[in-house]
Design a protein that fits this description.
45% helix, zinc, Ubiquitin-protein ligase E3A, alpha/beta, cytoplasm, transmembrane helix, 783 residues, two-stranded antiparallel ribbon, zinc ion binding
Length: 783
Amino acid sequence: MNSKSETDEASRGSEASSSNNQPTPSNPKDHSVPVLCADTSTGKSKDVMKRAAAKQLIERYFYQLLDGCGNPNCDNRFCASSGEARNLTPNEAAAEAIKLFYTEARLCDTLPNKVPRTEAVINSVCATTPCATGTTRNIVTKDGDRIDYPSCSTSRFMDKFKPDSSQQEDCKNVRHNNGAPLTEERIYELCDECLETKKPQVLTRALGEAFTQPAILARCFQRKLREGDNGNGGEKIDKKSNAMCSSSDPDKDVDSVAGPGLDVASCRRAFQYLANIVYYANMLAGVMESNTMREEPVVIASQLDPLGDALDHLYPLSSMKNLKHTPYEDPLAIELDINVLDARKPFLPFEEFYNEPLSDTIEMDIDLANCKTEIDEIGNKFSFLKYPFILTAATKSLGLYYENRIRMYSERRVSLLHAVVGAAPPMPFLRLKVRRSHIIDDALVELEMIAMERALDLKKQLVVEFEGEQGIDEGGVSKEFFQLVVEQIFNPDYGMFTQRQDEVTVWFNPTSFETEAQFTLIGIVLGLAIYNNIILAVNFPMVVYRKLMGKKGSFEDLADWNSTLYNGLKDMLEYTENDLEETYYQTFRICYTDVFGNNLFHDLKENGDDVFVTQENKREFVDLYADFLLNKSVETQFKAFRRGFVMVTDESQLGTLFRPEEVETLVCGSKNFDFNELEKSTEYDGGYTSESQTIKDFWSIVHSLSLEDKRKLLQFTTGSDRVPVGGLSHLKLVIARNGPDCARLPTAHTCFNVLLLPEYENKEKLEDRLMKAISYSKGFGII
């Protein structure tokens, strides 16, 4: 795999072959290294062998100080197994190893090279072989490979970590030796043993050793070299050996020998097996809810499009029809009957499973293509999107962005084909022309007509035009359109949504006079925002996103919907005295108010006013109360809202990639306004640099602004006052020089996040012009 691991393999292999005859070599001359290049000079060949032998001895000292020799009765004070050596960091151990080499300190008999072996072979050997310290034996596997294995007494077992350790060690634990590399078979065996013993120590220790010690990790999941692997592979090794002969670095000559390589297939299988087990175990170990509380599925009638089908046939590699497939379902999740929506509180937060380095380096366009590839004779290609719990929300949102763009381009081609054959005029975009003074009426009317005539047009790229303005929509105009729509439609005065006095969230008005079609259109607006990668200033409680994903609201969802009511009901559940009926004097009839302040009554069960809440039925009362408020009272409005949302997102992987908390971040953006991150990620153009005085003054002013003014600055420069998914470091802002000092105000290209900033003569003038620009800007024009 790499030079370090190969040298380590060579050194340990030589130790195994010479352990019986030379247990404590102390001179580099006692070791021999095979000559890699036969045509090199004699002097150079000797130098190579001397340096390699010295390197191997130093490495032996290094691993002896860190890992020990594996002998529990070791008395070498320079060995970790003796208990006399102090704990060293890798850097300290490296320095100490060099000192021990020069003083020719004592070396123990270390463990030989470890390779995968079957349990049957190990058990048979252990049963017939006496345990003798310092011996190794050769066995032949069923594949015909000859391997070395350590004797029982020279191995460090996992048993020493058990509370009751005994002098007689079970030979079957040889496969858990300290320092053994991970293989697919070993992962399966460790998991089976954990299930049998109901103790996770053997697995956690093996994983901990592998991922904290680079030398062990480098030898994990290595491909076995078989007799048939002497064709092209041998030629490649020979070529590498010849190339090494011309190298002037002796260390590089030795360390660059090609090893067996990584067994990618077995590593993938083991990762899939182990990662899913840990993920689902984390959910099952936490607080789980019933899997019966599901929203009714929304069925969207498919529309026939013969011309679109013809285009898909002509361009099969780029059509969404060929990329569409049934969402991936994990067989283990099906077997366990578990869903992430049912995990109310996992044992560990889901964020602990995020792999940030992987998420930052993954090529999402390639991974999405692998995820969409159908099964063929070779099998599915590996895709991290099938394991979304290890990816951050920002990375998954990028995958969703690519998927939506492919869908948009597909619809654009279909539209052009319609125009070519004369079936319809060309409509490559979803174009909305609205008036600022009547933005709600114009937008909803046009969307309603599109949804009725051809709902597939909703999956085209959105282009917005404000009547009487010259702005061309490259993204910025759409952002302002959504902002204006959200500001008006979620205003309580509009009557479709309500907002509590003591809460900042909005909720469906159960007594709204608006029709179901209006709520459907609002759902379409929310779906279009996600589909076009636009962040909205929507303050829904978390239960809305859970319901959109298919999970009905429950008692725990009241916490952020109405914290006062939640705390009161929670106190009732925790009340244990026998006088609950007299204390609360609550029946199964509840009272709530509408938007006009009128009191409304509802019986949670038949004749509810005659049934008092007692210790026996208080849980039933709480569940029925929450179910009415979060589900039944707004059932009509929410079903229409969800239907509009699904009309846009039904073919995307939104439900399989994102948890409800991540969907909220996808809609509303991040809540972390870290402008220091924005400053680090900002680029400069037109003559500005980070060292320009105007730029320094600009950031000094920005960091001193209030949160409200910072929101205005984001609105002015990007068209939205929301932080993108992943934080402001993912917002690529560009500040360009717009001429010398002048009286003009700063301007911005919101479609491209570009701020045009003149080089003002002093900081005071810059602050004055900037504050006027962000406070009084509205509308679009051509510069």
